[in-house]
Amino acid sequence: MSQWLNLARAAQLAGVPRGTLQRMIGAGELAAFDGLIDAAELLRAFPQLKLEDAGLFEKVARIRDESFGRRVRERMLPSQEVLAQRLFAQGQELADLRRLVQAYHALVVDAQARLGELAADDRRLAGLKGMLDEGLKRALGAEPADRLDAMVNVMQVISAQVTVLPSGRHFLVEGNDSILQAGLKAGMRFAYGCGTGTCGLCKARVVSGEVRQIQHSDYPLSEVEKQQGYALLCTHTAVSDIAVETLEARGPGDIPAQDIVATVRAVETLAPDTRLLHLQTPRTNRLRFLAGQSVTLGIADANGDATQTAALASCPCDERNLHFHIAREEASPLAQALFADRLRPGAAVSVRGPSGDFVLDADSARPLVLVACDTGFAPIKSLLEHAMAGEQVEAFDLYWLATRADGHYLANQCRAWAAAFDNFSHRLLTDAAPGAGAWQVTEAVVASRRELAQCDVFVAGPAEFVQPAVEGLQGAGALPGRTRALVL
Questions:
Q1: Which terminus of the chain has fewer Cβ atoms in its 10 Å neighbourhood, N or C?
Q2: What local confidence, expressed as pLDDT, does residue 146 receive?
Q3: Residues linked to residue 326 through DSSP beta bridges, in sequence order
Q4: What is the CATH number of the domain that holds 336?
């Protein structure tokens, strides 16, 4: 019997991003029906796929046989209660299938006996009986379980699949993650606030499947809401494959303005003239934002109060930990406080925002061309991490221009992405003049032979770089409606 898989499960089996499967379907290299892929068709397209390649059984074996720490176990497997419920559900399914097989077996045995009686007087029926016997022999001699079926069964124990309605998007809940945590890690744009079961903003209706509460909640659901299947995504996990009905943010207009007082968690030196400012929000008041957006930071020190707009360098999947790349600049009060060591861990920083439309198209799977100059890399990094988490975008091309000696302050991160993702490429360019460097970037993009009209293009950096870069890229084919620019 054919087993149909959606893109999330199929990508997990094949070990490739969902965007790769979408490209193969569009190119006719992989057959799909109504968004689903037959397991046999997946095996045909990926003949190297083997049970041991998926690593799922190996994960379970390592956890069982080796002395892994608690944190590692929690990331790989759900809690014992959830695991027991999933195994029980699979046991029930197996029992139902066994009863069905027994009924079919009795029917086939009866048909064989009847045909045997009639075949004695009719040569055609004798031939039919021979075909039936031969077919049963081949079927009963086959492997008792298809290897892909076995892999899917193991995945259903280790992880649960969530279908979001009405968008139809899918993601997997693994380990001890709540539905909200897993969704954010997968690039979903859910509505939420506290993340701790207090505000109720992540309330959603569970249309099908079973969920389990894993965290205390102070938000009271009414009896009517409980009967209709509502639950808080931040305090529940998925026991079985589920479908939830909830709205997702389509763009910046769907993200409310927020005022939060965060704490400096760390200040790290990325390069002699570039520092990482790591802020952490309170557990009950997290910042909801879209990748690529900015916020206004407010500080108070011995030199007085000051505010400054800064682009977020972190992914929305970790909304408590906010990262910013700050360059040494005389005109920047934030930079002056950081490089003079006046802004230290434990200090309070006000965060207001988010702002800006330098964000990904929620529905686009088009390749991304990402262009940055100096600390313009910060919002580009946010976009990249979010797109990689969502596994929807097929390819990423990064062009990073440095106008100072330490401009490529995270070059190692780019090399790590290139090693981890086959569909990621990057060029590190240098030029002392941002305007001249913009034309150098344009020439590099054109030389790549990427069809810019089929891409989403993002450009971030100082004004003297952004304007000529946008003009050059649009002159090379980038569409204005698919080009986003951010001046820092």
A1: N
A2: 54
A3: 275
A4: 2.40.30.10
